[in-house]
Fold:
Amino acid sequence: MKFSPRAKRFVATSVAIASMSSGLTLAGFTAAGAATTKLDIPLSPHEYPNYIWPFASKNYFTPTNIHQFQNLMYRPLYWVGKGSDMTIQADLSMGALPVWAADNKSLTITMKGWKFSNGETVDARSVVFFLNMYRAAYGAYGGYVTDGGIPDQVASATASGNTVTMYLTAAVNRNWFLYNFLTQISPMPRAWDRLSASDAPGSANCGANLATYVKTTAREVCGVNAAPSIGRVAAGLYKVLDERSQRVATFTATDPYWSVVDGPWKLTSFDTAGNRNAPIVFVPNPSYGGPQKAQVNQLVMHPYASVDAQKKALAAGQLDSGYVLRTDVITAPKPGVVGALKWSALKGKFTVRSSPSWSFDFAYFNFDSGTGASPLINQLYVRQALQTSIDQVSIIKSHLNGYGQPTYGPIPLVPKNDFAGASFQNPYPFSLSRAKKYLTDNGWTIPRTGTAICTNTAGCGAGIPKSTPMTLHYEYASANPTAVAIMNAEKATWAKIGINMILVPKADPDDLLSDCFSGNGNWQICQFGEWRYAPGYYPTGELLFYSNAVNNPGYFSDATMDIIIDSTTKGDEAMKTRYALYAAQRVPCMFQPTSLSIAVTSTKVKGALDASPVGSFLPEYLHR
Structure:
């Protein structure tokens, strides 16, 4: 199986790397109560939604567009997360959980019969509409994975009333398919299935059952030209919806397409001039069929040009929730426990919470000689030495104010989960003596001060002849002072074992992206930042460490890893713990400490929970 990326990872990368140590988060809430007033919350600094159709291409597949905008109005088929819970929320999902055949090659979904705001039923056709569009325009959707899951492993998808039936081309891991693919389906109304607002709803027939579930048939009705490249040429219905979704002037309460919603909120005000500086206002959708209708009259989301501007609004009492820095709170007394606010302007007015994220921080290693890889990186013992000499506990204490979690592999240890397995232990605990031994055992001489030299007559591995110095280059985003401090601390520690790490700061994260992820750069180690498992909540490695995956810009390749990853996607639940351990042992990337998020919530807002580890945002539960 060959995988290509969920392109949102690259879209969000510049934010992720720049804020690797920023500790910002949006508060999450839940409670019961009556509608009384409005709630004011911030958008992420520098961010403003710019795409409304929940079928975004890679350039628009961002957390701001999806979690803070689209999901409020257009709910996915299955909803993941509520507060600290990271599982499928049956009551918040529009379909019953799928019923699988014994061979794991087909499934049936029964819709609950919720309504769109125009009176249409959210039925099986609404789901098949999304699936048919995905089959036609698969290369355009930001969540696309080649040969894996939806749509490439779907042999047929049909609708009958409230029943969706899907037949697959091969057996799959049920949880992997559910959490990584079915959760990305956004049922779409017949009001969108037309080439113009004057046409009858459903007249384009993209939501109708296809005679055969193949690309050419889907393109005939959903409108994508059959060009040879994966980036299909837009035409017909796809072009209508995609282009309309890019025109913010259509983001109004009366637009014949976007005003038809199935979520708890309806859009009533947006900066349709495109200046990105006006508040976004939502009002309750009385037709929402979920368990909790909105409890306030207005939800107002405010844009800010900077964290400082947002903090000033918090201090002035203009926001009910907001972002804070780790320096605004007392050092965490112990892992997972938040300290009190020390920012006097908020004391007594806001409560502070810390929550882990279903994510991990890391830096890519480059194994591709065509883009500047060093033969040193190809040696496992070098990667082991690098990993063993990262003092994550000290970094968290000294640079993250205690709000961080050590990262020992691609599976986060918090929130608590069963993917790593009860017996998982860090294969490379911090030890400079052990790190030195990895090098000296393989022919390196480490001086009292200075750079280690390969002194073995036969060399120190493929492409590493005698007299080679232990020198590497590490690129990272330097806009964040905490990130700079962490990099310098790690450089000093590596120097103690003879590794001369040349840091290459990049003030503009886009420059880092261009160098490390374009395929045209020249790099050896590149700080990525945070990888969040959302969507794609089931944390297998097909998007990161599978050979030839495009989210594998350093071209890490390991035949055993490929076999393990294949097994995790095809039905072997036991292999998920094998993946966690093997990936940690092989050090396909440099695992870095993962920061914990911090949020403040007004004491006037009742029932606030910690931020969701998977980014689940449910403001309909908010009340005063």
